[in-house]
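hi! just following up on the protien thing from before. the input was this:
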Amino acid sequence: MFDLASNVTEGIRNTTTVFERDLDRQRLPRHIGRDGIITAYSGRDALGQAWMCELNKGAYAYDNYLAHLELPGSDMVVLLTYQRLVMFRRAKPDEAGMAVGAAGSSMETGSATGAIGVSAANASKAQIEWEQEIRSLHSIQLDATGISLKLPATPEGYMPPGPFIPISDAQSRRWFYDQIKEAVKALIDHRKELG
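and the predicted 3d structure came back as:
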């Protein structure tokens, strides 16, 4: 009987010891889409969602993440939610106090290139270049070197130039353009539902 009591208390002690330790996160939290359907884990989507939640002190945390694109050859990222587009400059790893990891860490970079990237932990140190709400766009245009965002005309009839997203790779350019179209379509569908 004494052995049973001893084994039970040892088991309880071991269990509480496990839960008292600080556990290191092995991966970023899963992205769950706007529809609420759980899909296979995507490190890329998880990174984009984490960036969205950390950028600008959490200003976009309640947006619905859709996609992001790291612009090749720069430290710029364009983030797309169903509510807005945000272009930001990632903090350099040494600025963010992060050790530089080995190339090929697609979990950290969110890209297949293996370039050294940043984690969500230092997205709060990123610099916002521009932000554009989807509802305030007049149109989007696919150009040979990127995507142009067109703004509505002023009362005087002047059509101000909107932000430009430079994307040299044709396949990436088309993919991101289609993602923006999805956000615009969702906005139009929502307005139709409202009457």
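The beta strands are 65-70, 76-81, 84-89, 127-133, 139-142, 146-150, 161-166.
The CA atoms of residues 68 and 147 lie 14 Å apart.
cheers
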